[in-house]
Amino acid sequence: MFVLGVDPGLSRCGYGVVGVAADRAGGLTAKAAGVVETDPAAPTHERLYTLQRELRALLTEFHPTVVVVERVFFQVNAKTAVSVCQASGLALAAAAEAGAGVAQYTANEVKQALVGYGSATKEQVQRMVASVLGLPEPPSPPDAADALALAVCHLHGAGLRRAVAASVGAGGGT
């Protein structure tokens, strides 16, 4: 099972693919991480097309079960918020097109799940991602680390989601 995390952005869109590692006693392992960059001088529609093409390629290469996209919760800069939302929409549509499940978490939810503190710094998130994935050093750039963190957050909560679903299916829910 692979999970593709996407830290959406029009100029820099982070991605991270995480799977369950058989050789690490059920631990998690990073399969890929990086950033899709688009030319800020190019027209928006061309930049979106570049991003769409790259996201489709990642989905084709890794066949993730779930795509986890950071949910935009708050942005001070309206122009930035619009471009992040456009990139987010592309990721969500590409996941649906590929038949993958979709999940969304805010940055604070990811930080809380991974670091235990919703206002953790980028460096704290990077260090925790490295620790959880057994990486020799924190992943960089931060966009890639954030994407890996999204995938890890989702995988860490998978057991709880299964238990709740089983409980509800067995008549234990209300």
Report on this model:
With 174 residues, this protein is of the alpha/beta class. It has one domain: Ribonuclease H-like superfamily/Ribonuclease H (Nucleotidyltransferase, domain 5), CATH 3.30.420.10. The protein is 51% helix and 20% strand. It has 5 helices and 5 strands, in the order βββαβαβααα. A 5-stranded mixed beta sheet has the order 3-2-1-4-5. A hairpin with a 4-residue loop joins strand 1 and strand 2. Helix 1 runs parallel beside helix 2, helix 3 packs across helix 5 and helix 4 crosses helix 5. The longest helix has 28 residues. It starts with a strand and ends in a 5-residue tail after the last helix. The relative contact order is 0.19. The mean pLDDT is 90.
> Sheet bearing the most strands, described?
5 strands, mixed
Question: Mean pLDDT score, rounded?
Answer: 90
Strand and helix order: EEEHEHEHHH
Shape: globular
Strand order of the largest sheet: 3-2-1-4-5
Supply the number of helical segments.
Answer: 5
- Helix % is 40-55%
Beta-strand fraction estimate: 15-25%
Distance between the termini: 30 Å
Q: What is the number of beta strands?
A: 5
Q: Which consecutive residue ranges, at least 5 long each, have pLDDT under 50?
A: none
CATH architecture: 2-Layer Sandwich
Summarize, please:
With 174 residues, this protein is an alpha/beta fold.
